[in-house]
């Protein structure tokens, strides 16, 4: 009897141990997955008086070919998880693994400061993210989103289907160096992209800061291959319509050596721009400022 009791205890304990272990994997933090942070700031709008509908559009995270990111599929739970969730009376929405939004759910129809409403649209340049308002007195745009992707390659994100700021034209020659079993960029690639400003804004400079940061899943990679890439646009425009802008991409591999970006990539590439970006060491957020 004692032997049978021990077996029952081990069996039940094994069920709960497996369920707890799989929950730790399935419900892990977003930052422990293939994870992107996307930020947009559009300045020099606040206080402007306009008529009609104002539309501003910016690059959206997509592959070089314009394919929007694919989130992980929602997983059915293991039997051990189902049993533990039932015993613990988990809410129905948590009876499956976490659900991750697709691009439409992440970016469409969000209302932000200044009564701007977000939307995605396929323009003659490809997909872009738009901001629309009918306000007659405008406010600056400040928007951020984060999302989980099914997979992306931080070593060659431009050519291997990872989300970058799209539209993408005229990519610079990309040189690479060996890095362990992989390669990474020898210098920061650049390319042309586009922003859009509606005609009713008329004359006057509009500033754009668009930033994408993407890290690979640290659970799938050994320490030396964990890292991220950052892709951004920092510019002022003085016209309306579709406007060509420059984008730059830099890598932080292995994870933690941010000096490669903040000390060289961004400031070096944008040395001649009138608009720069300052990252707060306290909050980790970004702010625009004039030189």
What is the end-to-end distance? 81 Å
Uncertain segments of ≥5 residues (pLDDT<50)?
Answer: 271-291
What order do the strands of the largest sheet run in, or round the barrel if closed? 4-5-6-2-11-14-13-12-1-7
Rounded Rg: 23 Å
Q: Give the tally of β-strands.
A: 16
Q: H/E series, N to C?
A: HEEEHHEEEEEEEEEEEHEE
β-strand amount: 35-45%
Kindly state the percentage of residues in helix.
10-25%
Biggest sheet architecture: 10 strands, antiparallel
- Helical/strand content category: alpha+beta
Spatial shape: flat
- Mean pLDDT, rounded to whole units? 83
The total domain count is 1
Which terms would index this structure?
single chain, 291 residues, alpha+beta, 10-stranded antiparallel beta sheet, 16 strands
């Amino acid at each position: 009897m004692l032997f049978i009791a021990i077996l029952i205890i081990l069996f039940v304990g094994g069920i709960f141990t497996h369920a707890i272990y799989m929950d730790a994997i399935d419900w892990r933090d977003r930052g422990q997955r293939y994870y992107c942070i996307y930020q947009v700031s559009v300045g020099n709008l606040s206080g402007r008086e306009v008529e009609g509908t104002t539309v501003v559009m910016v690059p959206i995270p997509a592959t070089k070919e314009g394919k929007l990111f694919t989130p992980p599929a929602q997983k059915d739970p293991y039997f051990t998880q189902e049993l533990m969730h039932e015993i613990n009376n988990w809410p129905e929405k948590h009876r499956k693994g976490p659900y991750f939004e697709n691009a439409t759910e992440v970016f469409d129809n969000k209302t932000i400061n200044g009564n701007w409403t977000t939307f995605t649209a396929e323009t003659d340049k490809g997909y872009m993210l738009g901001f629309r308002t009918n306000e007659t007195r405008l406010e600056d745009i400040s928007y951020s989103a984060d999302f989980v992707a099914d997979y992306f390659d931080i070593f060659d994100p431009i050519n291997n289907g990872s989300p970058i700021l799209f539209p993408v034209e005229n990519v610079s020659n990309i040189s690479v160096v060996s890095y362990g079993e992989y390669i990474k960029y020898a210098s920061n690639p650049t390319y042309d992209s586009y922003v859009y400003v509606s005609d009713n804004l008329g004359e006057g400079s509009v500033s754009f800061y668009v930033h994408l940061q993407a890290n690979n899943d640290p659970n799938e990679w050994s320490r030396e291959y964990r890292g991220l890439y950052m892709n951004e646009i920092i510019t002022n425009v003085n016209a309306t319509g579709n406007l060509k802008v420059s984008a730059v991409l830099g890598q932080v591999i292995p994870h933690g050596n941010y000096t490669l970006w903040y000390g060289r990539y961004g400031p070096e590439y944008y040395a001649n721009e009138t608009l720069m970006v300052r990252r707060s060491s306290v909050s980790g957020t970004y702010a625009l400022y004039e030189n």
